[in-house]
Amino acid sequence: MNESIARTEALALMKEREARPVHVQHVTALALQLFDYLGELHGFGPRERTLLEMAGYLHDIGHRSAPGGKAHHKESARLIREYPWTGIDHAEAEIVAQVARYHRKEMPELTHEDFRALALVDRKLVQTLGALLRLADALDRTHEQLIPKLRVELPTNRIVLHIEINGPVLYELQAARVKADLAEAVFQRDVVFMVDDEELMPRQ
Questions:
Q1: Under CATH, what is the fold of the domain 3-200?
Q2: C-alpha distance from residue 39 to each of 15, 62, 182, 201 (Å)
Q3: Rounded to an integer, what distance in angstroms lies between the CA atom of residue 93 and that of residue 111?
Q4: What is the pLDDT of residues 32-54, one digit of tens each?
Q5: Domain boundaries in the chain?
Q6: How many beta carbons lie within 10 A of that of residue 122, not counting itself?
Q7: Which of 30, 96, 183, 202 is the most exposed place for a label (fewest CB within 10 A)?
């Protein structure tokens, strides 16, 4: 991987295809904050962080070619696969594609042909990065950047997200409670959302 070239190419593709760049850039920033805070759990480094960053920029580019946007996650993956990358190789492009694909709807499953075709180590990477992107996307559910940043604490058996807010975040928290499913499966911990030390949207 050439990180500089890969990032430049991802931003160029985002600019070409993305109708809401502010949203995807904000989601990417939140996903990278999660990646950095959770380093002791996932153990990944700069290469994997760049792959997450690329998937963040590109996870919604399928909207224009997906009627009604319902399958845009799969269309985003297709567009990523078909792009003539020079900064990453084919295997890395497939990881970016699948991380983008799993930002919504189903979690990665072995019944999914593309996921099953990955090497075991790459499946784990897709699951982990996909979990972070899935959660970050939920935290900007309204596309209004109501959660500018967050920090994370890791008490036993939990991932506690302390979120800063600049407006009502009911829709964000409802979505995040649902889309924390993959993070909880990957890290084997409950995800908890806090504002000013008060837990929000506790599990029922």
A1: Hypothetical protein af1432 (1.10.3210)
A2: 30, 30, 17, 25
A3: 21
A4: 999 999 999 999 999 999 999 99
A5: 3-200
A6: 16
A7: 202
